[in-house]
């Protein structure tokens, strides 16, 4: 089998949220035989407040990973990321892949509140799927990385959802926009009118006891600037946090998440970095 050069794969993977895109191929290759997959579990009353659970066969007290998809807060769907659920479940983790309400109809903080609500559902119910709610990790890509980092670092959201702020063992942000002036970008329609970045960005909301955090940056990312992770890292360090920021060579905004797939690990080490981070912190 001849592998496509990276520069040819990049435009293909750029269609991750488009019908008939390469993500469909990734999902076809992500065979779930031997896994326990439960789809469209409701964590709230709204149409988009649903999630999928991928569990290893006969899972018992396994660590738990929740993944939040990207899409500029206006698109994307959990069904596009079956390959992520399969990938983490094959590694031994009960994996929750969630949907959330989308902008512009639902602007900040609606989608962050949905993440908090999904975490509450997970802590209350994941035991029935073989997961250990006391070993919970949250990760996301792009806008989903914003949601994942914001929901954990800003203690307001977990408290409002009735989740102890210390419940999360670790956070992984993949190519996330944690610190930028959205007023200068089309994504401003995901935030309230007249909102100030100072009141919205995760880098401004780091609590005093942040959990261990991994920030992965794509060296060739042309959508989310690397300064987002640099500033997020600085904010976490100022709070005394355990944070690692790593720039992954040759990857762009799309291939960095595509390489979470077990079939695309040749593109880069995203999957290995995430799994190593979780394994080191999931020990009892």
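^ structure tokens above, recovered residues below v
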């Amino acid at each position: 089998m001849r592998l496509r050069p990276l520069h040819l794969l990049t435009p293909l993977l750029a269609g991750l949220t488009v019908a008939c895109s390469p993500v469909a191929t990734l999902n076809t290759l992500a065979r779930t035989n031997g896994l326990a997959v439960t789809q469209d579990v409701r964590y709230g009353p709204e149409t988009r407040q649903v999630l999928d659970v991928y569990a290893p066969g006969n899972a018992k007290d396994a660590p738990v990973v929740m993944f939040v998809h990207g899409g500029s807060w206006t698109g994307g769907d959990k069904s596009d990321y079956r390959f992520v659920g399969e990938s983490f479940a094959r590694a031994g983790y009960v994996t929750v892949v969630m949907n959330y309400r989308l902008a512009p109809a639902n602007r900040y903080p609606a989608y962050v509140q949905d993440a908090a609500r999904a975490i509450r559902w997970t802590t209350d119910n994941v035991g029935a799927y073989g997961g250990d709610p006391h070993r919970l990790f949250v990760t996301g890509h792009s806008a989903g990385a914003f949601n994942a980092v914001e929901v954990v670092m800003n203690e307001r959201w977990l408290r409002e959802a009735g989740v102890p702020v210390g419940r999360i063992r670790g956070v992984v942000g993949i190519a996330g926009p944690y610190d930028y002036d959205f007023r200068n970008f089309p994504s401003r329609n995901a935030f309230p009118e007249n909102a100030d970045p100072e009141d919205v960005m995760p880098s401004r909301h780091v609590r005093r006891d942040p959990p261990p955090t991994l920030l992965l940056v794509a060296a060739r990312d042309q959508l989310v600037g690397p300064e987002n992770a640099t500033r997020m890292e600085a904010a976490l360090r100022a709070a005394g946090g355990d944070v690692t920021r790593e720039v992954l060579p040759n990857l762009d905004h799309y291939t960095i998440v595509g390489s979470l797939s077990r079939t695309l690990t040749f593109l880069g080490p995203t999957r290995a970095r995430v799994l190593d981070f979780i394994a080191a912190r999931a020990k009892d």
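Residues 1-20 have pLDDT under 50 and may be disordered.
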